[in-house]
Every structure is written in C-alpha cells, then in structure tokens.
Fold these 2 entries.
Entry 1:
Amino acid sequence: MNASLPADFPRDFLWGGATAANQYEGAFDEDGKGLSTADMVRWLPKEERLKKEYPFEVSRAEIQAILKNNIQGSFPKRRGTDFYHHYKEDIALMAEMGFKAFRLSINWARIYPNGDDQEPNEKGLAFYDQVFDECLKYGIEPVVTLSHYETPLNLTLKYNGWANRKTIDFFLRYVKTVFTRYRDKVNYWLTFNEVNGIVITPYTGGGVLVDSPQNRLKIGYQAAHHQFVASALTKKLALEINPKFNIGCMIARMVVYPETNNPKDILEAQKQNEFNLFFSDVQVRGEYPTYMNRFFAENGIILQMSADDQQILKKYTVDFISISYYMSYTVSAEKNETTVSGNLKGSLRNPYLQTSEWGWEIDPLGLRWGLKDLYQRYNLPIFIVENGLGAFDQLEKDDKIHDPYRVDYLRAHILQMKEAIADGVELMGFTSWGCIDLISMSTSEMSKRYGFVYVDLDDHGQGSLKRYRKDSFYWYKKVIATNGANLD
Ligand code: BGP
C-alpha cells in the first residue's frame, strides 16, 4: 500500500470564486429590475452601526419612508461593484486566474420584478444568458444560487416574504423559468444561501419583517419550513427539466466549541451544533430531526405544515451540500454574552485564535473539523462555496495591492481542505468569497474587501470602479494551475 497521504485535490476540483447579485451586480433599477430587500439597506457610520443588533435589517416603517420620500444615496447594495456593466472584464479576470467555477446568484427581482408577476422580464433573462455564455467561453462552470439574501421587495410588503406559504409558489415559478431558460448552460444550482441565516435574520434570509423580538424565532422557523419545501420542490423541478442538474443546499457552517471541558459547556456546544446541522439534516435526510422537538416545544413553536410536506421533503433531497465557512464559535452554558463578532452572530473569545480586522476569529482547523463532521454525517460530496478574509486593502501609487494577510488566510484554509481530503472527505470544489471586491453583507461597507481583484470604490460610493490585480491574484492563479500542489 502506498504510504503517502491521499491528499491531492481531485483532478476535476472546481476552483473559483463566489459572489452574490445584491452585493456585486448594481444596476438596481435598470432594464426592468424590481426593487429587492437588499436595495433598502443603508450604509451607516461604524458608531451608528454598532448600536444596532441587526444593521442589515430594515423595518416596514423605514421601507415606507424610503419609498415615499424617494430617498437616494447611501444604499451601497444598489450599486454593488457594477458587475452588470463589467461582467466581460470581470469574467476575463477570473479566466486569467484559471477559474474552473464561478458562483453567482440570480437576482430574483431582475427576472420577476414584483415576485408575483405572471410573466418574466426578458431583459433580466437575457443578462444572465450573456453572463453564462461568457463563463462557458472560458470553460468556467457557473454555480448558481437561486436566492442569495434578497427577495423582491413587493413580496415582503405584500405577503411578508417567506413567512407566507404563497411565496413557495412564486419562487417555483421563478425557478421553473430559469431552469428552463438555462437548461443547457448551468449544471450546479444552490437553493438558498446560508439557509440557516433565516432564523437569525429573517429579513435578510427571507424578506420577512419581524413584528416583535419575541416573534423572531417563531416566524424564522416557519419561514425556514417554507424554504425547505421550496428547496425540495426545486429538486423535483430539476428532475423534470434536466435530471443532470446537481442541486445543493447551502448552510453557513458554524462549527461550535465548548468554552471549557465542563460537561455543561460540552452539552451546550452539542446543542448549538445541532441547530446548525438541523438545516442540512432536513435537506439531506428529508425529515425533521427528533432533537428539534424539544426546542420547538420549549419555545412555543408550532409549525404550520401542509399534509404532503413531509412526503415532499423525504422524496426530494439534495445531491450535494455546500457551505460557507469563515470562523468557529465558542459557547458556554452559563454565559449569554458575546465577546467577539462573527458571521451572522457573535461568539465568546477563543484565546487560541487570532481575529480579523472585523473581529472574526480565524480558525482553519475548524474548517477541517466541520468538513469531517459533515461528511461523516451524510456521506455526500461537499462544496465550499464561501471562505475568505475581509480586510482593508491599500492601493499603492504603482497600482499594486500587497495583501499577504489574505494569502496567509487562504493558504491555511486550503491546507486544511487537503487534510480533510486525506481524512476521507469528498470535496467537490472551493469558491473563495468575493473574488472581485464587492459590498459587505453585514456592514454594507466597501472597505471590507475579500477579493483577488481590487475595485476602486469607497464607502461613500466614490471611485472609478477600475479593477486592479492584487498580489493574491497571482498567488491564487498558481494554486489553481498546480491544482493546489503549490501553496507557497
Ligand atoms: C456570508 C454571506 C455573504 C457574504 C459573507 C461575508 O454570510 O453569504 O453574502 O457577504 O458572509 O460577510 P460580510 O460581507 O458581512 O463580511
């Protein structure tokens, strides 16, 4: 038997980058696109933002005021970094790095401007045709998220988004349209970005307005149920329209550690891990796990289900699992507070880890732990569709951007992916988050950058939108060219 580790990346490994329409595309009111929930989120100065628990959420009253007074400016997601008008240039840059895959999302409101329209917007459909054609020209596989943190605003105002069962039908109309249209151009589809996000931030995850803090969990889990059913029926549509489609769920993989080896902390960490894996359990195993019964009972959550929901969930499960991974989380049975910030929620400080400039803890080994745990649980291929470091970058006088911190972060995580493969995990691909700089989801800042390509734009929307290759651009190109063998 060969004694060397089987740690090579598979030959068809999908290296690439990831984006989301609402943070990248811009052109929020062009060519018939309707408003979406993300178009209502403002940029706030840091001091003001930190006062808010959910700076990325907007209330009904705020939306009404914005619409009534036609308030302009300081809505960075409306402009993104203008992929809409730069897609040829951006995809050429991705091709230059050797991308095998490009994860992007379709903006639902570009296809169905109000969400509940009878007919799709042809100009919106034509835009994605051009984008996919451009990808295919370079042999880049589009990996398409159907819903990434934006919902047509009309669905929010009229139906309260995914809190309402009717939204399932509107969504399926949209899915049928794009599945049919891009039948021969797209092979990989993800249903809902970070589907577990909906119970943390129902507005972001599902266009849901929460009327009272007490209601947040109830409404969040009900909306999650609707998204589960919609995901299963999406798989059904895939089987009807093109059985070769690969349908994946997408969860924010929140690896949870106990703060101490006090059994109480260990039990708490297990519970929190279950809350995370609940979302993949339903979509992979096709049923609600029994550990949730107690949680629902204790929190007065009674899910409204239709007679055949359980059967649908069981019958149409996903083909693969995709995840975002940024950090691990540390919890204690006794302490409710958080002492560091993080993706979607905060955590207790882990003294063994360093933090990013935004206070997110950096934990490559946590990725390996999380991958192994997922694979052992489901035995399904895993696609890492988000990972990366949000950092301040400096454009130098000679147009260079030196970002060794980003290379260090990615190298450490890719090394742990290799280790996970050696541990037996079946990994399909890796798309680094925000490969071309884009707007931050949580802070709406431009200055929180993840990309290999710098975009000249600041937090106030000023800049030429010119693209510049960072040092990490050349590094990632080499990583892809050597299929992960050379990470130097
Ligand atoms: C995930 C989202 C992305 C993205 C990323 C980084 O939660 O799926 O949309 O933005 O996190 O987060 P942020 O932009 O807040 O730094």
Entry 2:
Amino acid sequence: MILSASQVDHKADPDRREGVIGNRPNPQAFLDQSPKLRLDVLDRLHDTSVLSATLFDRDLLVELAKLAAYLQLGKFPAAHALEDKILAAAFFEPSTRTRLSFESAMLRVGGKTISVADAKTTGVAKGESLRDIGQMFNSYADVVVVRHTEQSAVQELTEYLRIPLLNGGNGSDEHPTQALADWYALLKWRPEIAFGTIPDEFRLNIGIIGTPGNMRTVKSFLTLALLFPQNINHITIFSEMADPLGDEIRELTNASPIGIDFSQNLKQSLEYLDVIYMNAIAFLGDGYRFFGEEFMLDRDSKLKPDTVILHPLARGGELCTSLDETQHNLYFNQADGAVWVRQALLLSIFGRIRDVVPTTYLA
Ligand code: CP
C-alpha cells in the first residue's frame, strides 16, 4: 500500500527529524560529556559577522555545538526567540542546503525570512552595486546570509552593513557555517574529540579529498580541524592539484602540530583513515569545475568498518549512492545538523540565549 503524505504520521516516526538513513549519532551522548553551557564563550558571537572559520576557536566551536545539540533534542523551547527579527538570505550563486537550512533555522526559532534565490531577480541584473545592495539589507533585515561568486564580495559588503553578515560561501574562499555543520556531526560521532584526549594509538587519521586552496568547504573544514591537535594524528590531502593548499591555509597548517601530507593514492590509504571529507566541486574563474574523478568511493571501497564519510553536497559521481544506507554515511546527518547549528548561531548572534536556556543548563 502506498500512503499519501497526509496519511503518514510524521510524529510517530521520530527518525524523520534526523534523516532516515546513515549514521545518526546521539546528541545526548555528546552533551553528557559537558552538560553546562558557557555563556562567557557564546557571548563572543553577539552582534558579530561570520566571514571566516578562523573566527572560531575550540571553545567557541564546542559551546556552539552543545547549544545546537540541546536545540536538536528539544530540551528548551526556542520557537519564539527571534520573532522580532528578519533574516535576509541573499544568494547570488545557486544553493540547496545553505539557503534553505538558514531559512529553516530562522523559522524554527520564530524569526522571519526574506530571500534572494537568484541574482538575476535583483538589481544586480541591471548593474546595481554591492554598496547600494548593502544599504537595502540594513533597512530590510536584521541579519544577512550572503553567497556570492566573488571572493571579495562579503568583505566589501561588511563595509556598508550595520547588521551582521554570515558568509554562506564566497567564491573559492570560505564557507564557515558549513564547517560548523561538519564539525557538529563529527563531535556528536566522537565526543572525545571535543572533551578528551584520545590515546595516541586511537587518534584520528583524516583524509581530505579536495583542494583547500580553491574549494571553500574544504578550506573551512580544514581550518576547524586544526583546532584539535590533541586528538587528530594526521591529515592526508588527496588532490590532483600540484599545490592543493595555497598560501593562506598553508600558513595555518605550518603553525599546527598536526602532521599533513599529500597523496594521489586513495585506495592505498583507506585502511588507516577514520574520517574522509570529500568534495569535488570548485568555483574557479567564472564557473564550476569538477575535480578528482579518480577519488571515488562506493560500497565496495575498502573502508575500515567504523570510518565515516562527510560531504557538504551537492555530490557527483565521487560519492556513490550505494554508501547511503551504510554507517559510513555521516553526510546526511551533517546536512541535517546544519539546521540546528545555524539556529544556535542565530540565537548567539542576537544575544538571545538567556531568553531560552534555563539557568540550570548554564555553567
Ligand atoms: N553545502 C552547501 O554549501 O550546499 P549548497 O551549495 O546546496 O548550499
């Protein structure tokens, strides 16, 4: 029998809240390690723009993930917390997840949204300047999420804005809130990354398939990975590019104690990788390019039994759908968690945590 949507009882199936398939780590297990929220840390986000993953240190990332976990578990109602606020989602480049999950996050905490889904429907099509667009955001919204093909656009916009700007992906540069979603998934999967020191022999080996120098999600993910030197043993970057890092991220990796190397032989490395982060799409010049066709994963890939795969999506042929039903699939949980971590971010930016979190949850 095929049920129509109206016949499906969504409330009776709590799994629908977290994606039905793949690895779904329990947010409670993460919170059990450190239940009290540190407002002194989260308050640093009040009225702040998020342009780069370098804004986050380990404490801020972990406290934000804890707030996200409480929201995901429904521990305190936040459905009206931002009902006097408007989020503008201004996307001058296509998106599925980032725009919709920001809008979903804002609506779930009671806020309102206005949206640009296609630059062609704005004054940009008539040559309108970022300066003038910025002035409109000031009048029409209280926070703006911007995605743009030009790396310089988000920085330039902040010069004209009096409201916080959240970088939803700027050219080949950064995608900091995607990295928050990536690490929210990983911290739920292995809470000891955040709170403990993993014994040397079990410290994580991470494989990154992609080029941090020109893939924004990869760059922001790697930036946050460097916050956990006590629990990450090694990072291997698989890329067909001669210089996958680029100058900016190389400065960060050079300053980190985490060992980083480069390889073109993914198959040979699979036996020791605990986490694989993959992406194949980069925005270069004036269009998209697909990289790494030789770095493909499917159900027959010789992964360790507990290896997890992250992918910011959209995917191409590099990530076979045959992996979707396996426990290697952390990528759907990663996409799902974006809604909760973006709610946590919005509550922090608007300084509304005290309005929704009972004092018993505060450090
Ligand atoms: N992860 C991500 O940035 O996806 P979208 O391009 O769909 O927003």
